[in-house]
Amino acid sequence: MKKRIALAAALMMALSLAACGGSKEETTAAQTEAAQTEAAETEAAQAESEAAEETEAAAESDLAYVKDKGTLVVGITNFEPMDYPDADGNWIGFDADMANAFAESLGVTAEFIEINWDYKVMELDGQNIDCVWNGMTINDEVKAAMEVSEPYCENAQVLVVPAEKAAEFEGLTDLSGLNVAVESGSAGEDAALALGAATVPVQTQADTLMEVAAGTSDAAVIDLLMAGAMVGEGTSYEDLTFVLNLNEAQGLPSEEYGVGFRKGSDLAEAFNEFYAEKVSDGTVLEIATTYGLQDAVILE
Asked: 93 φ, ψ to 5°?
């Protein structure tokens, strides 16, 4: 009897030990699985945090944003000699060539998009473009809406008229009584209105010349740099000429061009450093000479 009781006790102890051993193994496996799950969750959270930090950094840095997507999208209009298409449809001009060089310095490619000049700030803020680089006159309105580079070129607004009627416009002190074609939203429009003109807003400065050539406007106000390239002998508008510097007529200094970026963008400082370097190594003068702008670009 005692043997049976001892055997029963031993069996119960063995079963108990076996049960305890199984429980310990299950507990260890569960702990391991929990640890692995926790590690995976920690790794995922860390990756998500790093991605969020990168996204935040890109959002705060236009430079990082542009480098990440691999393109610098440049908002332009057809404005010879700054931005205009060649025979193959490629954008060339002083601004276009400099934009290509700037993009290359960032390790990205320049992409050019024609914009409506009235909506340039909207296009910029909506990230449809990364900069406005099109002979843009620096003024208080522009500086309030954009991060603007240091000036890189000087300019003025001039009155373009039919060459055969040039004598009729000599000695003008205002533009009252004239229908004057202007690019909508431009410095030329502001100047024409300030001198009393009845303005005819069109989409581009090139369109203003078509207005005068067609006789639908008495005159046009465009940038001096464009007038030098597009009117007179040897140009597409040989029968047109420019007769009045509107800046001088208003007692204003020459205008200055700048590149516009999103407000607070670090691309503006990147451009300033790039331009100073290209002035120093002669690139700016070389490109300016190609387009007859050697006397207009700022080389200091």
From this structure: 120, 170
CB 233 within 8 A of CB 117: no
In which residue are the tokens 């009781």 written?
A: 5
Report helix angle 267-280 to 94-106, nearest 10.
110
CB atoms within 10 A of CB 184: 16
Residue pLDDT, tens place only, 146-183: 999 999 999 999 999 999 999 998 888 889 999 999 99
List, for residues 10-65, the tens digit of each pLDDT value.
Answer: 445 544 444 445 555 555 666 666 666 676 666 766 656 554 444 444 457 999 99
> Could you tell me the two tokens for 271?
């451009």
Write the CA distances from 57 to 64, 68, 260, 277, 298, integer angstroms: 7, 11, 21, 27, 33
Cβ within 8 Å of residue 232, ≥6 positions away: 163, 238, 240, 241
pTM of the predicted protein model: 0.70
